[in-house]
Write a structure and sequence with these properties.
5 helices; about 50% helix; globular
């Protein structure tokens, strides 16, 4: 298991090289634009969440095509279950949706913030 310092350093490195979808979604989430503070590449041991709203205990994960293979699907399900057991809700969105229909993704996130 990665230590807190290793996770923090890995998250910092990931923030420096966001995907196109991560960059686009961050523009919509940053600076409390949805009325909630999000953090990007936020360590939630033993994982790093793409985006996390600590106050709402909501994680938003952007999934690309690499998440389509069976092994990754199994890993994602186990990860989501572990995070849920720790009190987090996980919302998974496709990177294609972030780029093609950003307002739909923002609406899903807004709805998840205020269930």
């Amino acid at each position: 298991m990665a230590t807190k310092g290793v996770l923090r350093d890995r998250a910092r490195g990931m923030r420096k090289q966001p995907s196109q979808a991560e960059r686009a979604l961050w523009d919509s989430l940053r600076a409390n634009k949805l009325g909630a503070k999000f953090r990007r590449q936020h360590p939630v041991a033993p994982y790093i969440a793409d985006f996390a709203c600590v106050e709402a205990r909501l994680i938003v994960e952007i999934d690309g095509r690499s998440h389509d293979n069976a092994e990754q699907v199994h890993y994602d399900e186990a990860r989501t279950k572990a995070l849920a057991e720790s009190g987090w809700r996980v919302l998974r969105v496709r990177d294609d949706d972030v780029l093609a229909a950003p307002q739909t993704v923002i609406a899903k996130i807004t709805q998840a913030l205020h269930p």
